[in-house]
Amino acid sequence: MRPAPMYFLIELKHLYRQSWKMTLFKFGLLGLCYLSLLALGVILNVVIGPLML
Length: 53
Description:
Elements: H1 4-16, H2 20-48
């Protein structure tokens, strides 16, 4: 069984049939978007969470 990120990377390559360079670029960009949204969620939770108590 493959880890989820590796499976996603291979499926990106298979689905769009582009070079590894373009596939890795898309994979990195999507990862950066995901990480940014995760960080935003954590920051909002830290800032707004104590106000809800």
